[in-house]
Amino acid sequence: MLAADAFTLDSGNTAWMMTSAVIVLMMTVPGLAFFYGGMVRGKSVLNMLMMNFIAAGTVGFIWILYGYSMAFGSKTDGFGQFFANPFQYFGLVGLTDDKGLGAGVGVPSLVGVGFQATFAVITVALITGAIADRIKFGSWVAFTVVWATAVYFPLAHMVWGGGFLSPVGKVAGWLSAPIDFAGGTVVHIDAGAAGLALVLVLGKRKGWPTTLFRPHNLPYVMLGAGLLWVGWFGFNAGSEGAADGTAARAWINTFVATCVAMLTWLLTEKFRDGKATSLGAASGIVAGLVAITPAAAAVDSYGAIAIGAIAGVVCALAVGLKFKFGFDDALDVVGVHLVGGITGTVLIGLFATHHQGAWYPDGAKDGLFYGGGVTQLLSQIVVAAFAIVFSFVVTYVLALIFKAITGLRVSEETESAVDLQVHGETAYESLDGSRVLTEVN
User: Fold this and answer.
1) Measured between alpha carbons, how far is 289 from 253 in angstroms, rounded to an integer?
2) DSSP secondary structure string, 374-422?
3) Which one of 21, 199, 268, 377 has the fewest CB atoms closer than 10 angstroms to its CB?
């Protein structure tokens, strides 16, 4: 959003945005870290936690240096539809409250910088769930920097920062303005497509799919899912940039869609497998959160309920695609984030409306079920398809380059004891803790 030309501080909006930024950061550390950490085996939980924490460190650092400028700065000649000038606000020098993007009415630009930083961090961290147990830690550290620069920052600019997929960009001239209120394309489709590309380059874990890889700590998974749910209210409602009725609509939609998605995921499990599981409840929560993210303020309560219901069923079924097609997506990033992101993004074309306080940008239209025809639906499909292709292709090429230079994948010996081999420690004393003390000393 564009800040006001003559800046006047709105302390209420500013306080809400700062609070939102804090709880969105909590989504990654510790929320996502423990959600993923509980799903891996005990021998690699520390590595999973570390990969999430390190993403916060590297991406947060480069976001302040040039990432914000690249996503939300002024357009560059020739390439301005794809990324902004990374040097305009390098180190945030020269950023003033009357020029910044990504904040809100009466909100200092630096608050917008911090809020958007948390989105960049969690997008990169989401990828770790697909590649658990296999990637070299040093390669992952470097990859976070390169991927954020080559994929996330440009896509954020294209959709939110004035590029050609933005409501204020050129797309309104040939279809209608696409709706991505809080990151269905920029975050979830982006991370899901990237995870798939990396998985295809890295290959399968040793023993998959014949060996059953059970989550080592389901309470961790439930804890992580709960933290994600709480933080997601900042993620979605905070994306309004103000404490107003639109933020309230996003909050309510986020809540009810997630409730319904959890229920429909569990019903799907019950009919398919005969059991409703805690892992299914946690996964259903995340699926609902993912799907409602792009539509958070653009649908009414009925639309949010429908999106949550559909996402719970579709994502519960989609997690089995990896076995059918043979790609080892360890923690279902493709099934939940890619498929959930596509589901939510496309369903906007059916349910978008101004009814019940819902909001969408100028140039967008009502969905098919609310009398707007197919225009918005086609626009949502095009934008989702572009995000999939862009993220997958660029990530696949980057992965091949890293594979040629660093090897990318750990050795079989390291894969058998990731925490011990990579970090020199284990999460639990029962996992050969005495050996850790010997090797560290």
Assistant:
1) 10
2) THHHHHHHHHHHHHHHHHHHHHHHHHHHHHHHH--BPPHHHHHTHIIII
3) 268
Q: 2 - beta bridge partners?
A: 101
Crossing angle for the helix pair 375-406 and 153-160, to the nearest 10 degrees? 170
Two tokens, residue 75? 């357009």
| 49-53-58 Cα angle (round to 5) | 145
Q: What share of the chain is helix, strand, coil (3-state, %, to 5)?
A: 65, 0, 30
Determine phi and psi for 102, rounding to 5 degrees.
80, 15
C-beta of residue 289 within 8 angstroms of C-beta of residue 229 = yes
Residues 6+ positions from 104 with CB-CB distance below 8 Å = 1, 3, 10, 13, 17, 111, 112, 240, 241, 242
Chain segment 270-321, per-residue pLDDT in tens: 999 999 999 999 999 999 999 999 999 999 999 999 999 999 999 999 999 9
Mean pLDDT, to the nearest integer, of 26-37? 97
Selection from 328, 350, 398, 391 nearest residue 187 by Cα: 391
What are the DSSP calls for 95-112, one per residue? --TTT-BSSBTTB-HHHH
Cβ neighbours for 106, distance < 8 A, ≥ 6 positions apart = 4, 7, 8, 9, 10, 11, 13, 14, 242
| Token pair for 412 | 């079989």
Q: Which two tokens stand for residue 19?
A: 């609070």
How big is the chain by its Cα radius of gyration, in Å?
21
pLDDT tens readout for residues 355-366: 888 888 888 999
Q: What is the DSSP letter of 241?
A: S
Say how far apart CA 397 and CA 393 lie, in whole Å: 6
- Fold of the domain built from segment(s) 11-410: Ammonium transporter fold (1.10.3430)
> Comparing C-alpha atoms, which of 168, 285, 301 is closest to residue 229?
285
Q: Taking 70 as the threshold, does the pLDDT of residue 1 lie above it?
A: no
Sorted by sequence, the CB contacts under 8 Å of residue 371 that are 6+ apart come out as: none
Domain spans of the chain, in order of start: 11-410, 412-441
Per the document, the length of the chain is: 441
Please compute the mean of the pLDDT values over residues 63-82 and round it to a whole number: 85
The per-residue DSSP string of 170-233 comes to SGGGTS-----SS-IIIIIIHHHHHHHHHHHHH-PPTTTTTS----S-HHHHHHHHHHHHHHHH
The closest alpha carbon to 403, from 101, 136, 65, belongs to 136
d(CA 93, CA 150): 22
- The pLDDT confidence band at residue 441, using thresholds 50, 70 and 90, is very low
Say how far apart CA 405 and CA 349 lie, in whole Å: 43
